[in-house]
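Hi all, long-time lurker, first post. I run a small reading group and we've been trying to get comfortable going from sequence to structure in the token notation. Rather than ask abstract questions, I figured I'd post a concrete chain and ask someone more experienced to write out its structure so we can walk through it together at our next meeting. Sequence below, copied exactly:
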Amino acid sequence: MRRAQWQAALIAVAVVVGCSSKQAMTLKADETYFAEGKKALDKKRYPEAVEKFQKLVGSYPGSPLVADAQYLLAEAYFRSADYVNAVFEYQRLVDSYPSSQWVDEAQYQIGESYYHQRRRPELDQKETNDALVQFRLFIDDNPQSPLVDQARKRIEACRSLLAQKLFLGGRLYQRQDHLDAAAALYQKLLQDFPDTPWYWGTLAELGELAFKKGNLPEARGRWEEVLRETQDEKLKLRVQQRLTEIGTPAGE
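-- Answer (accepted) --
Happy to help. Here is the structure in token form:
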């Protein structure tokens, strides 16, 4: 009886050892997954890179390579233009591995991922606003980063796009003869985006609204300011023509 029990126990151990050995052969080491993922990323085989890095991150959470793999996983999504998943994976790095060397780059890349999702100015600008917020956060958190100058350029581009949306909205209302609604959008642009290329064109359009309402002094004042300040030669020519058309005010 005892001999039969020992035989059963030995069989059970053999089964367990066999399964463990088989699992060890199937599951690759973290270094191998990392090397294979990096090679696939360099070769632009992005789905393969995603698969390898996901296996490393999911199967080896204690590996010294896991933070690097998490960043490269996000990079694989970004380089394949899957910006939604890229944002998620970059943010996961920032949240889960705050001491990683890649945190500042990940913060910047979140902004880039939103930036690449921007839409035409006449459409909703949620992604543009998200990019703007993220780039500002990046600069606040990493003022010494070499990426700060590029982040500032991205901020300028985002602000210009938001200003353009207001300008086009004002022009649409203007063409539809909704002059007060047009003026409201133009005024908001002047207030919120005075440093964008759309500022002086907007000031000229406010001159057009004033002219249409019969307020010649206001129209003249707007156009003369544009003429003095803008560097846009085409705009200068247009407002000069408008000033010539309305003539010199009486008494001058």
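A couple of things your group might point at:
The two ends are 125 Å apart (CA to CA).
Confidence is low (pLDDT under 50) at residues 1-27.
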